[in-house]
């Protein structure tokens, strides 16, 4: 998953590696983009990429969207959407240890994966999205 935007993703030396349940994550960050790689010995749940994106929105309380998705020989490109450059929400963890941030990501990911079987967002993610997107004309 590749995101072509700045986001307050917690990384030491622009990289974070961690395990969440049966999934190994590698997050790489540059000044204007970041990528997330997920590997597992078991098959990923259906719509897992949506759940990962939901957890990535939750972690920094920022609207982020996948622009490039690479999976087993398939490349998907997504057009950019209009997003707010500012947010009135603070992240759930403000500058705590990086490990705590990824533990929070893992817990939210586990929750939305368990509770949401469709390609739609979990209602909590939808509410967060609505809180992050200002009314047109407010920017």
Report on this structure.
With 139 residues, the protein is α+β, with helices and mostly antiparallel strands. It has one domain. The protein contains 3 helices and 6 strands, in the order ββββαββαα. The chain has helices spanning 48-58, 98-115, 123-132, and strands spanning 2-3, 15-20, 23-29, 34-40, 68-71, 74-77. The strands form 2 sheets. It has a 4-stranded antiparallel β-sheet, covered by helices on one side. A two-stranded antiparallel sheet has the order 5-6. It is globular and about 40 Å long. The model has no long low-confidence stretch (mean pLDDT 86).
Task: Characterize this entry briefly.
With 139 residues, the chain is α+β, with helices and mostly antiparallel strands. The protein has helices at 48-58, 98-115, 123-132, and strands at residues 2-3, 15-20, 23-29, 34-40, 68-71, 74-77. 28% of the residues lie in helices and 22% in strands.
């Amino acid at each position: 998953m590749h995101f072509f935007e700045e986001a307050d993703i917690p990384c030491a030396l622009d990289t974070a590696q961690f395990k969440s349940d049966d999934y190994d994550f590698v997050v790489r960050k540059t000044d204007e983009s970041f990528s997330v790689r997920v590997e597992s010995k078991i098959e990923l749940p259906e719509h897992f990429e949506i759940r990962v994106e939901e957890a990535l929105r939750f972690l920094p309380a920022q609207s982020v969207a996948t622009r490039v998705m690479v999976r087993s020989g398939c490349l998907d490109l997504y057009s950019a959407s209009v997003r707010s450059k500012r947010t009135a929400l603070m992240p759930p963890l403000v500058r705590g240890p990086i490990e705590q941030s990824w533990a929070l990501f893992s817990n939210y990911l586990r929750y939305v994966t368990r509770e949401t079987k469709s390609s739609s967002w979990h209602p909590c993610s939808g509410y967060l999205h609505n809180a992050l997107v200002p009314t047109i004309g407010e920017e």
